[in-house]
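Handout, page 2. Input:
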Amino acid sequence: MDYRKQTRLFGGLVLAVALLTYGLTVAPTASFWDCGEFIATANELEVPHPPGAPLYLLVGRLFALLAPSSDKVALFVNSISVLAGALTSLLISWITMHFAKRALGQPESLRVGFAGLIAGLVCTFTDSVWFNTVEAEVYAPSAFFTALVVWLMCVWEETPSLRRQNQLLILIAFIFGLSIGVHLLNLLTLPALALMYYFRKTEKPTWKGALIAFLAGGALLGFLQYGVIQYTVSLAWPLEKWLVGTENPQTGEVTGLGLPYGSGLALFIVLLFAALTLLVLYAEKRKHPLLSTAALSLLFVYLGYSTYAVIFLRSQVSPPIDENDPGNVPNFLSYLKREQYGETPILWGTLYNAMPIDYEEKGEVFLRYPHSTRYVYEGPRLGYQYASKDYRFFPRMWSPSHYSGQGPFSYIHYVKNKGADPQNPYDDKPTGLENLKFFFDYQLYHMYIRYFLMNFVGRESEVQDSRWESGLELARLRKLPAHRKKDPSKAHYYGLPLLLGLLGASWQWGRNRRRFAVIATLFFFTGIAIILYLNQPPNQPRERDYSYVGSFITFAIWVGLGVIALAEWAEKLLKRPADTAVGLASTSIPLLMAVQNWKWHSRAGNYVPPDSAYNFLISCPPNAILFTNGDNDTFPLWYLQEVEGVRTDVRIVNLSLLNTDWYIAQLKYQSSNEAPPVPISISDEVFMGEKSATMPFQSQTLVLPVDKAAFLKQYPEAHRFTSESLADTLRWSVPARGGDKNSYLLKQDYMTLDIVLTNLRQGWKRPICFANTLPSFSYMGLQDYLYMRGTVYELLPLKPQGAPKGSIYNAAIQDSLTYDLLTRVYRYRNLDRPDIFYDSNTQRMIANYRSIFYRVVDQYIQQADTLRSDTLKAQKLREKGQNLLRFLQKTISQESCPLEPYQIAQEAGLWMGLGNRDEAFKLYRQALQMLKEEVAYASYLRQPLDEMLQYGIEMVARGAVTLGDSLFVREALDLYEKSRSVRLAPNR
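Output:
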């Protein structure tokens, strides 16, 4: 078959399958993590977290405009990833066919077409690729740009015309510039493209020349990442300072012309484009084609990069989401450099145990104060200075905050010589071998090779830190607990994609080592090179396989080439061509991957993220201030407010962002939709800059009088309370972080306290609410005055009932209000459908719902137990509790949202307290069976037992004793004794 027809036929088939697959499994709305943020910022062209993705925002805005209604905006923005993912599979198919054709020298061979087909389909159904293509994230478009520049280079390689070649190089440069506005991962293709250029342009290439080309590609990568992206703005800074001006509060000195912010940057960009244009004209006039192509390429890189003007300009109009306030040059430069994430050593630096010996100046700090017209000089930028003996090559264990902690990869587990104090990292003496062992164990294996094997061998589960699993571990899998065998995220490929890929790589090595070098370079730079650059510390908040998708789609090329190797073997064995038979048989591999991955990758019908956000927002009183923490408690709420317009009167205060001055200034001075600014009394001079990151503080008791008249007059729901129910004063102990000798508060702590106190002193005009997912410290000791209101705690000046609560988990419950929220108001879309898969991250949010149900039911039980003289009222309370549990079982079914054994035992205990022994016994029996299998499995593996499993065993044992069934008691106690012989696992 003609090569062009093959590319159309097999490529078209790949595109159709990919579009159908991703279209059927795409999320109908916002997903967790950054997705809600990206949809919200794309919808109104707002400013996301650094380093931003302006091109993605522009395309997202276009797709959002096509949505027929606000609740469909998320689906339309998600479809960007669907299209990008499908086009990536198409391009991988074409790239594979190109390399196959060049190696075989027979473009009409069906082997070429089948190689492209299998490569494209494997790319489509690869675990990490599929995950990225069904949500609103930048990684699917980034993978598309990666495949696009490689494919264009393949087209360039086939082009005989020098003029056409130069045009393609300029187009590739433009795409590089555009891709910066999506993600920097695309730049990692440059060393591989440099090799392609060298091998095509050199008649007799040598490995020495290839090495020089490789280094030139690496240098070009560094030039674009640092020279273009960062230093362009750095070079504009002196001009910006002169045109806008500066002021020094300490000396009173004022400089500059006083022009608007950004004037110097704008003039510099005009001069830069003028200079590049003149350079192009000069090269054309002097007939220097190489200089002309280089100058035009750089000009088009900058044209593509110019999408970042969206970030700068939109920030200047102060949209509701304006992260890092990059509407001025210092903040914009910090935004591009991702300075908020800190510095990470790569090849040279200190280990975690290095003690600073002094501070050193690393430049100057200029800030844009909220009401200033010039940049304010804050002082020198200070950094830690270390002794020269503490520096070493390739520091992998570098982060002091990750010395100890949960999980097996904390540094403390690697270092043998821990000094005099095992808990003090600064007297440790880690060796170079221990540093390398951490690199190989965690960074290389756990954070890359494990992901690679999950994609091409199989995976145990989607749960974070789970292992790769081929399906050939028959003895272990037979021992697996029954409820784990049903996990849809367990995918077994039996190592077939890996074997076919290795076969393809070895075949290419034997046929054409130059092209093997190109693919191998691409594979390395989009995988292991990222590991070397990121230098990740342990205990990541989520899996990071999405970062290495470039290497996975590259390996899919080798999988496709493996089909050719199989066809050649079959031909030698059968003594006749077997291209069609081998090609069709090879389709079983991507088909296996599709079947194994479908259910857990399908997000069709999953509405948990926006529903959880809705339930948070709808729980709040009118005009409330809601404290949240982390991505998944905040970004879905931003999405609902900015896109669907839900409860825009609620002002969200993210505690993580509350550590930054720009965010505090926005809260203090800017409205957000219908929500007015947040009451803050701390002056700008206190919270601006890094000097106020912490505040020395001793734990102390605060006493605040309650203005009852103001509360009853101004509080939005004052009709629910009477003067007699209100306390005269609020008295609580504010905790401090750190030890007794070095106690302090973070900026987020003292700002939270200031917001609460300022609002209270202003007469309780704004309700204060805290999400119930916050860490305990975040409530600032106010537990006695926090009342559960569904998924939030509402701060109220009510007289405390009973003993001090101590823990937030003992906070009082507004039971009638919470009951109505749970049964009449909250959204639980599709949580009763077993055909929809909810991953472990989503299950944590669902478990949050269950915990609220359990707490309300437990309160009914306690109230009923105290009403022994009023049996009728007690019976009604127990009936109400039973109705609530039945509502829970129907709305959030165990079939669709499986329970852990300890959760089943917990629910059984509630049924026991409600007087339904039959239901309690059934659930205890279910939990016991699951726990028996878990203990047997842990014993078989000789692995420690998870702490929550041990907790479940203890709950079942106590429940069995309460039930009084002698046989059941014996079973439960026997299991308890067996479990004690299995060592407890550390917390994970």
